[in-house]
Amino acid sequence: MAEIENAKQYAQILYCRHMIAGVVFYEGNKARDISPEMIYIDTDAMKRSIPTMAGKPIFVFHQAVPLNDVEDEADGYVIECFYNELDGWLWAKILITSDEGHTAVKNGWSVSNAYLPKDWEEGGQHLNVDYQRKIRNYEFTHLAIVPNPRYEEAKIFTPEDYKAYQAEKKAQLEQLHNSKPNNSEISAMSFFRTAKTEIKAGETILDTDFTEITNSDGSKEVVTVGDLKKAKEEANRLQKENKKNEKMVDDDEEVEVDGEKVNMAELKECYKNMKKIKKNADSEKEEKEKAENAEKEKGEKENAEKEAKEKEEKEKEEKENAKKFSEFQNAHKSNKTTGAPTLTSIGKKALGTKLFGK
Hints:
8 helices; 40% helix
């Protein structure tokens, strides 16, 4: 038992993909005055870094490497690092030795590498994405098991899962090579590993390689082989799903409704009747609303006409009273003897106000 005196189980050999060429965002470090930036690492730089990974310690979460006490602090070690031609990822064969490491793997955590840049190049653009700097050479310091890796598709595999993954990738590439183009546009497609390196006929095409496609609206777009595969897989899935949903049901097939078995023919008839009833109800509701609106408009029109007529009569009476009041005021100036003008109630009130005030 001395071999596992520091853990409850034996060390476990696993495989992990932890890095792929492309542009990666680094958050920076305010304490060290390091600003956030986009960094580009190409395949050549990754391959140059491979010899620096073997033997490096593995920790649960990133930490500074304690060189004087690494054996007590490490949760495992990197056995081997290699570039996988089938998917374009940098992989590692690892040995997990601690209980904490075994638990993190069991919980589905992934991996994130740590390295020290040695040489830099100026910024530029990769697949239409701007980056501030490009790493030319770097050296790995350790590998960390974390819940949220820098590369979202980084993953840990058992030896059996890794073997199955490799077989699947080989089958996908063989299918891609053996598939026949169905039009001149597809046959004219060119695949590129970098902006200046075109892949020749017969060479292995990786998921990270890219090509240019023309969309239905005529626009051009750069996509990776991996994206094309995912699009094809999604199209196949949707096609299968649609076929599954298109299954025809016989009229004699029965289903249970409220504890009673009913065949599909009866359900269809019920559904038709329900739609008919709903249609009639909607029609009746619409007619009722029309009638109510018409009645409302009629009432509003009659009220408006009544108010207009009352207003007109009132204005007419006010004019008549004003005329009689004027005659009454000027009666002493006239040589003719006339009777007093007849006033309406409104006129009398106006006269009283004129002569006596309120």
